[in-house]
Amino acid sequence: MYRVLAKQALTPVTTEYLIEAPEVARKAQAGQFVVLRVHEQGERIPLTIADYDREAGTITVVAQEIGRSTLMLKDMQVGDSLASFTGPLGRPTEIENYGTVVLVGGGLGIAPIYPICRTLREAGNHVIAIIGARNGELLFWEDKMRDVTDELIVVTDDGSYVRKALVTEPLKELLESGRQIDRVWGIGPAIMMKFIALTTKPFGVTTIVSLNSIMVDGTGMCGACRVSVGGRTYFACVDGPEFDGHQVDWDLLLSRQRFYIEEERRALELYKQSAQQPQPQETSRS
């Protein structure tokens, strides 16, 4: 169960996985996440659901190879099975016909905004998406995003593909244009989401962010994903992952994200060292 049915490299550091998980797919909604383990003693990896197919019984997740566990995930082959694949977890995106909505995806954040764009468009919204990455090599799913949006704006930090700009620049231009923007979503690195919220706040446009990246355990038991929103403490995994970006204490969140940097670095070094060790060869006996 939880077999890897397909695997595709999207960028040099990002991989898409199609996972056989019929019970998860049956209930999955945009904005929710899963927690997977590569093997029985493996770390729990929270990943936002990038797509789901109820009829086929599959879930699509996208992971960036930045640490030990995501590198182990990348080493899995089509036909291999995950030790566990738990979900759907978290509160789904609140879907209504708001009017004109803007969804901003930065880097890996492009994957989780895809099902939200699709569901909002199905609900009758005019969907504008802004997607961006550090460079063109790290950008993915442009064609898929065009299929679920009414307008798509593509930018790269270094200008190596399409327009040179941070994602906040076209967002600000839309807000200043006089067009009615009824709601904004931003998903990506925490620092990016902070500046999206700062960009929209003067215009009074409700801005939703997803705080999946601060999760560790994904069940609310470890307490690592505590966030302060509007002066109150919440757990991103059970109370979110989506919150009002104007109410998030971003400085506290950014500092909490650095708690396990040293442990993550050591784990990655040990994994790389073990991968370089020669494997024992089997010997035959006559």
Quick rundown:
This protein is an alpha/beta fold. It has helices at residues 22-27, 68-74, 110-122, 142-147, 168-176, 190-200, 236-239, 250-256, 261-276; strands at 4-11, 14-20, 33-37, 45-48, 51-53, 58-64, 84-89, 100-106, 126-133, 151-156, 163-164, 183-187, 207-210, 226-229, 232-235, 242-244.
Helix and strand arrangement:
Elements: E1 4-11, E2 14-20, H1 22-27, E3 33-37, E4 45-48, E5 51-53, E6 58-64, H2 68-74, E7 84-89, E8 100-106, H3 110-122, E9 126-133, H4 142-147, E10 151-156, E11 163-164, H5 168-176, E12 183-187, H6 190-200, E13 207-210, E14 226-229, E15 232-235, H7 236-239, E16 242-244, H8 250-256, H9 261-276
Parallel strand pairs: 8-9, 8-12, 9-10, 10-11, 12-13
Antiparallel strand pairs: 1-2, 2-6, 3-4, 3-7, 5-6, 13-16, 14-15
Helix pairs in contact: 5-6
Characteristics:
single chain; 286 residues; alpha/beta; four-stranded antiparallel sheet; globular; disordered C terminus
Strand neighbour order, sheet with most strands: 11-10-9-8-12-13-16
Task: Provide the structure class.
Answer: alpha/beta
Q: Please state roughly what percent of the residues sit in beta strands, choosing from under 5%, 5-15%, 15-25%, 25-35%, 35-45% or over 45%.
A: 25-35%
> What is the tally of helical segments?
9
Helical fraction equals 25-40%
Number of strands: 16
End-to-end separation: 39 Å
Molecular structure report:
The structure is a single chain. By secondary structure, this protein is an alpha/beta fold. The strands form four sheets. It has a seven-stranded mixed β-sheet, sandwiched between helices. Helix 3 links the parallel strand 8 and strand 9. Helix 5 runs parallel beside helix 6. The relative contact order is 0.13. The chain is built from nine helices and 16 strands. The C terminus is likely disordered.
